Structure formats: structure tokens, C-alpha cells
Amino acid sequence: MNYFLCITTEENWNVIKEKKIWGVSERYKNIISKVALGDYLIIYEMGKPKTKTSEAKPQYVRAVYEVVSEIKEDTKKIFEPHMNNTSEVYPLRVKLKEVKTFEKPVIFKKLVPEMEFIKNKKVWAGSLRRAMVQLGEGDYKKIIGN
């Protein structure tokens, strides 16, 4: 069994929750190709900086899902595209089954000191500048134990 941290936006977290689908761009074909039936995906919602009209939002762990389908390619637009690539549809997709949704989202920053996959604890966000990160079982258990 494998574990992955899946990095997404607030808008796409809502799509994942509603449609039970995870998708990535072609750019991340190598990492999603490691995903198999029965693997666990932890959904990580990126934070937002403070703006003139809204408060800052921290980075959250929202839920854990089990992968229940093989990877399929689908170009139907269901996800919000990245602001730097407005035509992106995240076509490499897997279907999901909910394992656990955190009633109160877990603030990820508090977990950083314990995360083995994050080598630079001071500049930890750099470890998450991609769609997915494979985790060891130890990191998975630390995240879901909260």
C-alpha cells in the first residue's frame, strides 16, 4: 500500500469532496502512475495569503481517500484551472472512496517538524510545490493521527 499527499486549492478541494475524483496534469504522469487500487490519498489544501479583502488561510489537511479505480484520462472540465494555465483540466484521474474527512481540518504547519519527507523544516513549503508527494507510512500515520 502507498500513501500520497495531494496538494490542491480550496476550490478543487470542494470538487474532490463532491465528485470523489482526484486529477493531475500530464506534467505529473510519473507520480500518479505510482498510484494503485487501495492506495491512500491525503488531501492537502494550500493556504492563502492575506489580501485587502480577505484574511490569510493556513494550509490544511482535509481528508483521506482510498483509490478505487485505475488511472483514466478524461478531459471534461470539472476542476478549477491553475491561474498560470487557464486551459488545464487535470486529465489524469482516479476515483476515490472517502476514508476520513476531518471535521476540524488539521493545520499542516503544526505537523512539519515531524514530517520525514520534509527535509528543510525552515522552508517547508518548497516540499509541496507539486501536485502529489509520496509519503512513508510513518508520515501518513502522523498526519491521520490528529
From TrEMBL:
It comes from the Archaea. Pfam families: EVE. SUPFAM superfamilies: PUA domain-like (SSF88697). Residues 2-144 form the EVE domain. InterPro entries: EVE_domain (IPR002740), PUA-like_sf (IPR015947). This is Putative RNA-binding protein.
